[in-house]
User: Which sequence fits this backbone?
């Protein structure tokens, strides 16, 4: 399970990198809105990439409780393992 | 007296529930076999009965007729697979079954029922169930932003309190938010999911038929900071508007089919794309708003595949399509069937339409399909429609004359600064639009003023809010739309919201113009700038420009601030105060529009404004 999570985190960070400037370091505690500046249009692209990458569907209600990279990785892990 | 009945409708309803199961349940392996049931969508043409165009007394009467045919609603998932079919016949049956359970809750006729409006068959069933049970339903939004939990729950609570709701329902995805919001709300007798309602005993009562003077539903209009206001719409007003939409506006005919991603909690989604098709027995294909937003191509694919003829969008939705659909996707699309591409719900910029038309012309999109219209929840939905099949028309007017003289003077010479406004068409039958000046005098053609509407689909008022009702419904039952515009040869041109006009030294400056200027900066996104005016004790007006800003470096922020001030000064000759705020600070309405009124309130609160501070230089927090 821990390996799964780390794998997800790694792949997620790879995608997040494309939405931010190259000099930003992304760690699990990084805040998606304030630090990575994920606005609503970027969020749509990000969710689309996540859904394609992990072959899942991300429900909107779950995103309301997502603030950090860790939150998002945890959510993806949760959805994947419930599958 | 209370009899537990097994209704035929239940089986179908529960199948639909499973087919459209929220994701948490969809992972359940047992359901996966059921969710692959091959079902065909409801047909476009109804072969068993003639089409009737909204000539009914009430919503339930319309459904009784539609249920005699073969058409209905179809729900598609993010990948474009048909997930559930709700024919009007099944809708009637399921709604009546749920109505008996709602009746068992012991509510009184006219009590309000809150429904979180996800794009699901259950929402539609419950909405009509309320009408069958003599209850007043209203739709509440779903959360859409990252980390929006707290704000969303506050918003729900505001609506529950403002409506004095007696019952509230949400599907399992949203029920926890709803329970949290419902805590301590007085008068709320029952909160649960559609499944929980389904387990309650059904009260076998013969429903009283609804009357045209009764309230059909409430539509909540406002965003997160101002107290939400519930627009009261009667059955008569509703049917009058629906008749105008399907007969005059869309000229609905056999062979029409709708496709929609518009949220059910938005008036254009609910009245325009749920009720209007039903009262004309037209089939609709739905895509959830979230799924559209993530993959806008799916909406166009639905139109193309099912040969839809009518589909509406806000300009923003068209923009998303233009931005996010790849050129390689165009080959698979054939949009030549799309005869009415309705555009409304926010200011329409001609370029948004031109860009969309240019992008999708190779896929067969006909620019003559554009159908700009104007409306607001306070007039049920629609006020004006342009003519079908003629595309959009616009007028270029001299920008200086508009500001200084409040006159729309058509552009004579090249090189002058101009504003271009889209023609929104003329008022529906039974409705009149007029434009008045600040003194209340009616203005002639091409003179800019406040837009007022009178007619058969105007609201009765705001629920439990006599002050706002009095302010909005003026003498003679003229509805003050809060919008500015002008008339020309009977057609309406909307130029912005009234709060959007800032009068500095006797000049009218459109807030929108200032915001557009800001949005042209690379650091500023669309819908992330809000401009308004603040007056000090000497009645001097200061323009404030609030920008949602992601820049972190002090130098970058300072550079943006001073550049904006310079640009505003250059364009309008006035100084302005620039405030940079974190993302998601600016309040938005339920339809995603920025609320300048609320932005202004927020600014005043944040700055604890005293008059002396107004002369101070720009803030940066």
Assistant:
């Amino acid at each position: 399970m821990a390996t799964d999570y780390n794998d997800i985190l790694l792949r997620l960070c790879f995608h997040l990198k494309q939405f931010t400037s190259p000099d930003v370091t992304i760690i699990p505690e990084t805040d998606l809105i304030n630090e990575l500046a994920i606005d609503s249009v970027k969020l749509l692209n990000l969710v689309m990439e996540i859904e394609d990458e992990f072959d899942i569907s991300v429900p909107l209600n779950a995103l309301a409780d997502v603030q950090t990279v860790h939150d998002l990785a945890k959510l993806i892990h949760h959805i994947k393992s419930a599958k | 007296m209370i009899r537990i009945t097994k209704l035929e409708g239940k089986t179908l309803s529960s199948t639909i529930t499973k087919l459209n199961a929220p994701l948490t349940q969809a992972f359940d392996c047992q359901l996966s076999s059921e969710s692959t049931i091959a079902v065909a969508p409801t047909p476009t043409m109804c072969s068993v009965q003639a089409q009737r165009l909204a000539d009914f007394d009430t919503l339930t009467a319309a459904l009784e007729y539609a249920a005699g045919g073969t058409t209905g609603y179809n729900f598609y998932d993010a990948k474009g697979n048909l997930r559930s079919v709700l024919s009007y016949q099944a809708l009637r049956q399921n709604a009546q079954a749920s109505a008996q359970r709602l009746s068992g809750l012991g509510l009184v006729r006219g009590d309000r029922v809150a429904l979180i409006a996800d794009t699901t068959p259950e929402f539609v069933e419950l909405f009509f169930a309320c009408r069958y049970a003599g209850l007043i339903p209203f739709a509440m939004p779903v959360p859409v932003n990252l980390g929006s939990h707290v704000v969303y729950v506050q918003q729900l609570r505001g609506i529950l309190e403002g409506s004095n709701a007696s019952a509230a329902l949400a599907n399992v995805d949203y029920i926890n938010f709803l329970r949290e919001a419902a805590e301590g709300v007085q008068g709320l007798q029952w909160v649960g999911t559609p499944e929980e309602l389904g387990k309650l005993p059904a009260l076998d009562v013969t429903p009283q038929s609804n009357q045209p003077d009764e309230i059909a539903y409430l539509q909540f209009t406002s965003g997160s900071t101002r107290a939400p206001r519930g627009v009261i719409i009667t059955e008569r007003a509703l049917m009058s508007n629906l008749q105008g939409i399907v007969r005059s506006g869309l000229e609905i005919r056999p062979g029409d089919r709708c496709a929609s991603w518009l949220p059910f909690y938005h008036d254009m989604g609910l009245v325009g794309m749920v009720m209007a098709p039903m009262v004309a027995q037209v089939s609709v294909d739905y895509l959830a708003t979230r799924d559209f937003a993530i993959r806008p191509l799916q909406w166009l694919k639905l139109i193309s595949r099912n040969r839809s003829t009518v589909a509406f969008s806000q300009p923003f939705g068209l923009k998303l399509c233009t931005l996010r659909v790849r050129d390689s996707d165009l080959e698979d699309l054939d949009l030549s069937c799309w005869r009415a591409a309705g555009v409304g719900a926010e200011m329409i910029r001609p370029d948004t339409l031109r860009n969309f038309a240019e992008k999708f012309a190779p896929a067969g999109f006909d620019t003559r399909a554009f159908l700009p219209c104007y409306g607001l929840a306070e007039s049920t939905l629609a006020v004006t429609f342009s003519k079908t099949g003629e595309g959009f028309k616009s007028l270029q007017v001299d920008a200086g004359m508009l500001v200084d003289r409040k006159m729309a003077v058509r552009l004579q010479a090249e090189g002058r600064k101009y504003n271009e406004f889209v023609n929104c068409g003329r008022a529906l039958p039974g409705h009149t639009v007029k434009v008045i000046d600040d003194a209340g005098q009616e203005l002639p053609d091409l003179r800019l003023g406040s837009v007022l509407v009178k007619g058969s689909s105007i609201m009765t008022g705001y629920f439990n809010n006599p002050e706002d009702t009095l302010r909005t419904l003026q003498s003679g039952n003229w509805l003050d739309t809060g919008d500015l515009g002008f008339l020309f040869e009977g057609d309406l041109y909307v130029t912005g919201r009234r709060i959007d006009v800032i009068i500095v030294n006797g000049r009218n400056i459109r807030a929108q113009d200032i915001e557009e200027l800001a949005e042209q900066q690379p650091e500023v996104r669309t819908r992330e700038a809000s401009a308004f005016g603040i007056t000090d004790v000497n009645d001097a007006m200061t323009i404030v420009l609030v920008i949602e800003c992601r820049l972190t470096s002090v130098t970058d922020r300072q550079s943006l601030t001073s550049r904006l001030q310079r640009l505003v000064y250059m364009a309008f000759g006035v100084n302005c105060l620039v405030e940079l705020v974190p993302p998601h600070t600016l309040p938005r309405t339920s339809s995603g529009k920025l609320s300048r009124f609320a932005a202004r309130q927020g600014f005043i609160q944040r700055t604890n404004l005293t008059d002396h501070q107004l002369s101070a230089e720009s803030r940066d927090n």
Q: What stands out?
A: Chain A has a mean pLDDT of 84.
